[in-house]
Design goal:
Radius of gyration: 28 Å
Largest sheet: 3 strands, antiparallel
Helix content: 40-55%
Number of helices: 4
Strand order of the largest sheet: 1-2-3
Number of domains: 1
Distance between the termini: 95 Å
Structural class: alpha+beta
Number of strands: 3
Shape: rod-shaped
Amino acid sequence: MLARILRALWRNDDGTALVEATLLVPMLLTLVAGVYEFSWYFYKQQLVETGVRDAARYLARTAPDSDPPTNPCSDATNVTYAQNIATYGATTTALGAQRVATWNPSDVVLTCTTIANSTGNYLGAATIYIVTATTTFADPALGFFGYLGLTAPNLSASHSQRSIGPG
């Protein structure tokens, strides 16, 4: 009698959809949340890369047209403008919204290196300046990582641009 009842229960497929949904829905929600989280991270990474590129391009065009050329990083005002352009998309913080909420102008480092061109290997003056904009910062706004006990990876970018002076 008991064996017959157990066989009947084993063959009964009422409620299997509920059991399958109970097992699969949490896994699917985790997968969707992970896809959302990483897409949000890559979106912010793209914003940071665009900002760093814009800053390097701006500073590369600000050096006055002189012979010999001057170091574009020597003008503190233009360096500040470039840092603001990286993080806000405008020369002043009042004109633009932050590209990434926790990214500040102080997180952007602008350096100018020189290339000796006295032999004339490159078109241009005897000294060529390369503007490099770099940044690395932790973005705590990446949310789902915290629920898993993980820390968000740093957002970082770098871009180099040859200084060509005003156009």
